[in-house]
Specification:
Blueprint lengths: L7 H15 L8 E6 L5 E4 L2 E4 L4 E7 L5 E7 L10 H11 L3 E5 L4 E5 L8 E4 L7 H12 L6 H4 L14 H15 L4 E6 L5 H14 L6 E5 L2 H9 L9 E3 L11 E5 H4 L19 E4 L12 H8 L4 E6 L10 H5 L4 E3 L1 H7 L5 E5 L1 E2 H5 L29 E3 H17 L5 E5 L3 H14 L1 H6 L4 E3 L5 H4 L2 H5 L8 E4 L12 E6 L6 H8 L14 E5 L18 E3 L28 E2 L2 E2 L7 E2 L19 E3 L6 E2 L5 E2 L5 E2 L3 H12 L3 H10 L3 H10 L4 H12 L5 H10 L6 H10 L8 H17 L1 H4 L10 H4 L2 H6 L4 H15 L5
Parallel strand pairs: 5-6, 9-14, 9-15, 10-12, 10-13, 11-12, 13-14, 16-23, 16-24, 18-28, 19-21, 19-22, 20-21, 22-23
Antiparallel strand pairs: 1-4, 2-3, 3-27, 4-5, 6-7, 7-8, 17-29, 25-26, 30-31
Helix pairs in contact: 5-6, 13-14, 19-23, 24-25
């Protein structure tokens, strides 16, 4: 057998697997092969989305289930022994496995990240692979897990028999927390982005500590009743009769797992602080959900509870730790044992990406000043000064401004999906009510269908609050639009929110992240894969803050009179989006094999912290005109930063970095095996093709080829439309040298180019679609050209003819 001719899979089967078995690894319980541990980033193009390539490790070795300690990356024997090492080290970073191996079937290159094995990298023979016990001993020594803590660390996860396992980052969070507790650490902080399963993570942590008897009585604290109920009925259900929810301000010391709303055990009077009915050492573990809300603040009621049970281990969970001069989670808990960010969640495909539409209003930018002695609608004398964005809807109400915002929200919904769940964040309850009225008046037909199409959901009004469950329930159509004023917490499962409207000034990064978190959950059943933020008050400028860690896929600022819907969503798409030709890469990401483009045509929740309506003086002015203006267009560059220069200037600069002259560009274009590769490469560098093509289309009256867009914008050449290029090829009598099926195929390819551009005709898969499939099968059509090389050459010749008429 020639080892050089074996595939990578053969190398695994014939050499690596026997080496593991001989070293004592159980291939059923300790070894997992071809492990996909991410979901693949959701890549958005207009109204289409697809999945990027998943990250896969060839082998993950675990001492116990969900306790990964080693990674093996395999290569075929034409690679060197260590060729897979850097890839394996990257997987090791994600999976928190300190022992890393690379193999080509000749042996192993072993990289020890603990520093305990000897030198960092060692070459091992196939018969020298370490045993599970050897690596586990090194792992425990590295982690500081002594013999008496092993029982806790080795305690199995809860398994309901359904095959559900924690995601990789949940596994890391659970293991690090359990290991920290086993080592005796008593203050632990976990930071996990909204929508990444903090409650399930908390359950597994508690389960393992409880089952191992490391912790016998546990208190789970939350600050929203709905969070406690969701937790009890869903993730914590396996605790069964050992669990209770603290209600009616009474305590029963006969349980082991206690779930409580912190308000249920505290009060302003000492006798209301019923947590004191427990002895200070009753609980040995306290888990604080959304700990940024209270535990970090010395003055909060939470801290009274934590201080009372100070002897217990405290585990804080949050998406947004608070770090200010007055408040600090890290001061209390210490540095997080693990952080899983919004950016990483989007990159892994577990969280939904988003687009940003920024709308500037003239009064917001220019301000407004009352005339001398001017009074408002209620006869109040308006203080004479310039009012600007920070004043509107707080100290001064411009009624027409509310109408303009409501009009833009309505316009967006009408042009996308009028029934997509939408949250409008307003400055206060009064603003939320006025916004509700404006949206009701702009949507009379929808409201006639169901009066709950638009609802105000704020803390002061029971009718609205009663609709919260319906709003967050994906199966309930109504309410569709909810106006609210505050969202400072997470935890309510907002799976299908597709539009977030910001008409509220947001200065807090913590609050901003919480609001963005309303849209980040993915729901495949309801076509929720990405969402849009409609920003009227420059709140999304916080994206530029170093503390923010999740970049938008697109930032769009419509000019006056333009549609509020991002330009790449305005095109009419084919009903069957899966028939759109699919390139191997999209926006710099490889596509998962077997994935295709899917069309999103579909449909959050938040408790309100408003306790009462504002008491401050607020002027109301009804006769000041407000309109949308355009200040600038911003695009997201490949480095995650916003491009603020004009798109044309940016494009010229980027293209000329590669092709200094028109001659250089023509040479590069003509020599490229795939023209689409150049288009995609420029897109990766930040060139926004949709906008550029649209701009040149206005001049031509027809859609140009990207080739002509570059020639025109970068090198000042007159552009041709795709239709004009195709007609020139036909005038040259190009098809005369072909006959039969080959001539029909090339003629159809030219039609396809006219309709859809260069990308589809460069992919041989197009021959499986109509109208080509009506001419013959894929093999028959390729054979008409004498085989695949002949077909490829014919397509290349066709492209040469298309671009022969160059500027």
């Amino acid at each position: 057998m020639d080892k050089k001719k074996l595939t990578e899979r053969d190398i695994c089967t014939k050499y690596i697997n026997p080496a593991l078995q001989n070293a004592g690894w159980d291939m059923h319980s300790q070894v997992r092969e071809e492990v996909s541990f991410t979901a693949g980033r959701i890549i958005v193009r207009g109204r289409l989305h697809t999945r990027g390539k998943r990250r896969r490790a060839d082998y993950v070795l675990s001492y116990k289930k969900n306790l990964p300690i080693a990674i093996i990356e395999a290569k075929d024997n034409n690679h060197g022994l260590g060729d897979g090492m850097q890839q394996a080290l990257t997987y090791s970073d994600a999976l928190d496995a300190p022992f890393v191996f690379s193999s080509n079937g000749d042996g192993f290159l072993f990289h020890d990240r603990t520093g305990l094995f000897g030198q960092t990298e060692t070459t091992l023979g196939l018969d020298e692979f370490p045993t599970p016990e050897t690596l586990w001993e090194l792992y425990c020594q590295h982690k500081g897990i002594h013999q008496n803590a092993r029982q806790t660390v080795e305690q199995p996860y809860y398994d309901d028999g359904s095959g559900r396992t924690p995601r990789y980052y949940q596994t890391v969070a659970i293991n690090r927390t359990v290991e920290a507790v086993a080592r005796g650490q008593n203050r632990i902080l976990l930071v996990m982005a909204t929508g990444t399963g903090k409650t399930f993570t908390a359950f597994q942590i508690i389960w393992r500590l409880w089952k191992s008897k490391q912790k016998k009585r546990i208190l789970f604290l939350a600050d929203r009743n709905i969070l406690v109920d969701q937790t009890k009925n869903n993730d914590f259900k396996p605790f069964g009769q050992a669990m209770t929810k603290v209600t009616n301000r009474t305590v029963d010391p006969s349980y082991e797992i206690y779930l409580s709303l912190y308000q249920a055990v505290t009060g302003s009077e000492d006798e209301q602080n019923i947590y004191k009915q427990f002895s200070p050492d009753f609980f040995d573990l306290v888990v604080i959900d959304e700990c940024h809300r209270g535990s970090a603040s010395v003055d909060s009621a939470w801290r009274q509870i934590l201080d009372y049970f100070s002897a217990a281990t405290h585990v804080g969970l949050t998406a947004t730790p608070k770090e200010t001069r007055e408040v600090s989670n890290i001061d209390y808990f210490g540095e997080p044992v693990y952080t899983y960010s919004l950016k990483q969640g989007i990159e892994d495909g577990f969280l939904a990406p988003y687009k940003v539409v920024r709308i500037d209003l003239d009064r917001d930018l220019q301000g407004w000043r009352p005339s001398k002695g001017q009074t408002d609608k209620h006869g109040e004398l308006i203080e004479d000064r310039i009012y600007n964005q920070k004043d509107f809807d707080r100290q001064l109400v411009l009624e027409k401004r509310t109408e303009v915002v409501a009009q833009k929200v309505t316009e967006f919904l009408e042009q996308t999906d009028p029934y997509q769940k939408t949250i409008v964040f307003c400055e206060d309850i009064d603003h939320a009510e006025r916004m509700r009225q404006a949206l009701v008046n702009l949507n009379p037909e929808r409201v006639k269908e169901n009066r709950k199409y638009v609802m105000r959901i704020t803390g002061d009004e029971q009718e609205g609050k009663a609709e919260l469950d319906n709003f967050i329930n994906p199966e309930e159509r109504y309410p569709v639009i909810a106006t609210t004023s505050k969202l400072m917490t997470t935890g309510v499962d907002a799976q299908t929110c597709k539009l977030i409207v910001l008409d509220q000034r947001i200065q807090s990064m913590t609050e901003f992240k919480q609001i963005i978190g309303r849209g980040t959950r993915i729901n495949d059943d309801y076509n929720k894969h990405w969402f849009t933020i409609l920003d009227f008050k420059k709140a999304t400028e916080l994206f530029a803050d170093p503390a923010f860690d999740g970049d938008p896929v697109k930032v769009y600022e419509p000019k006056a009179g333009e549609s509020v819907v991002p330009d790449d969503e305005q095109e009419t798409l084919e009903p069957d989006a899966t028939e759109l030709p699919l390139s191997e890469e999209a926006e710099g990401y490889e596509i998962e094999p077997g994935e295709t483009w899917h069309r999103d045509d579909s449909q959050p929740a938040w408790p309100s912290d408003d306790q009462e309506k504002t008491k401050r003086v607020k002027y109301v002015v009804g006769d000041v005109e407000v309109s949308v203006i355009a200040e600038r267009v911003q695009y997201l560059g490949p480095d995650g930063k916003l491009i603020t220069e004009s798109l044309k200037d940016f494009t010229r600069k980027k293209v000329k970095e590669q092709y200094a002259t028109l001659t250089d560009f023509l040479k590069g274009w003509n020599q490229a095996e795939r023209k689409q590769a150049i288009i995609e490469e420029l897109a990766e560098q930040g060139v926004i093709w949709d906008d550029l093509i649209k701009d040149v289309s206005k001049k031509l009256g027809a859609e140009p080829d990207p080739f002509d867009v570059i020639c025109h914008i970068v090198y000042d050449q007159p552009p041709l439309s795709r239709k004009e290029r195709a007609e020139q090829v036909r005038k040259q009598n190009y098809f005369s040298k072909y006959e039969g099926a080959s001539k029909q195929v090339l003629d159809a390819l030219l039609d396809k180019y006219t309709d859809d551009g260069i990308e589809p005709i460069e992919d041989v898969k197009i021959l499986t679609l109509a109208p080509f499939s009506q001419i013959g099968s894929l093999m028959e059509l390729v054979d008409a050209f004498g085989g695949k090389p002949g077909y490829t050459e014919a397509v290349r010749d066709l492209e040469d003819e298309l671009y022969r008429q160059t500027p």
